[in-house]
Amino acid sequence: MSSTTRGARARARTEVTAAIKEEARRQLVAEGAAKLSLRAVARELGMASSAIYRYFPSRDDLLTALIIDAYDSLGEAAETARAQASQEPPAGRWVAVCAAVRAWALAHPHEYALIYGTPVPGYTAPSTTIPAASRVALALIGILREARQESCLTPPALPDGLTPEAERMAADFAPDLPPPVAVALVAAWAELFGLVGFEVFGQFHRVVEDRECFFRHAACRLADSVGLTRSPATTG
User: Fold this and answer.
1) What is the pTM of this model?
2) 181 and 187 in contact (C-beta within 8 Å)?
3) Which pLDDT belongs to residue 130?
4) Could you give the CA distance from residue 227 to residue 184 in angstroms, rounded to a whole number?
5) For the chain, which terminus, N or C, has the lower number of CB atoms within 10 Å?
6) Under a CB-based contact definition with an 8 Å cutoff, are residues 39 and 51 in contact?
7) Are residues 47 and 125 in the same domain?
């Protein structure tokens, strides 16, 4: 087989794979992840049911591909925001990443629901999703590392009883950061996605009206909680 033929086949496979995932995303919007069906996707694309299995052997394989794509898209948004805010103090970079997470989620609510909403019955995400799922957390960890190098990080107080857990956390994912910062980071990470989830899923209805201003204030408070020193311009 010539390289030209192999290249054409590879391009065709890439195009069909993209079409399958795009149709699957339309199904997520219309039916939700729990009702995603390979046969329904094939039918909408005019494919034989047997043909789609050459691209995705099971519904779970397709779900995994969609989940990785969503995590990667979110991670790219966070990393881009961090890079664009590189001239700001670390607290400003932190707030920029948080704002990018919120903006992405509001622009992609169904994909956000896929990765941070109700688990899909019968589906367990494989370890292949971990690198993509870690991108936002790694962006935040990177900001904390930069802050420490720039003398803009003051570790928060930590109860004595939490010290062993703090040391374990730091050893697991941020051995170059003080253990109290590792604990605060995990809490802030959870609170960030809690804030975003409340907005995406409608829990702020008739509670928070100026949601952008509210979110910026909350993101600044999260920066405080992990020990980032804020400049007046960052204060929200």
Assistant:
1) 0.90
2) no
3) 97
4) 8
5) N
6) no
7) no
At residue 49, the pLDDT reads 85
Q: Count of residues for the chain?
A: 236
Q: Do residue 88 and residue 157 come from a single domain?
A: yes
Q: What is the CA radius of gyration of the chain?
A: 21
230 inside domain:
no
Nearest CA-CA partner of 136 in 198, 81, 194: 81
The verdict on 24 and 108 lying in the same domain is: no
Residue type, position 54, single letter: R
Domain with 28, as residue range(s), is: 1-57
Q: Looking at the DSSP assignment, which residues form a beta bridge with residue 47?
A: none
Q: Tell me: do 196 and 106 sit in the same domain.
A: yes
Q: Are residues 98 and 143 in the same domain?
A: yes
Q: Is residue 114 part of a domain?
A: yes
DSSP for 22-46, written as a single string:
HHHHHHHHHH-GGG--HHHHHHHHT
Q: Pick from 167, 73, 67: which is nearest to 124 by CA?
A: 67
Report the CATH number that the domain containing residue 15 is assigned in CATH.
1.10.10
DSSP type of residue 228? B
Query: Which residues are registered as beta bridge partners of 153?
Result: 228
Distance set, CA 219 to CA 141, 164, 228 (Å): 15, 28, 11
Q: How far apart are CA 229 and CA 221, in angstroms?
A: 11
Same domain for 137 and 180 = yes
For 18, 34, 180, 233, the CA distances from 186, given in Å and listed in that order, are 34, 29, 10, 26
Give average pLDDT by consecutive 10-residue segment, the chain, 236 residues: 62 90 93 91 92 94 97 98 97 98 97 94 94 98 96 93 96 95 97 98 95 97 92 55
User: What tokens does 38 get?
Assistant: 């390979």
Enumerate the β-bridge partners of residue 228: 153
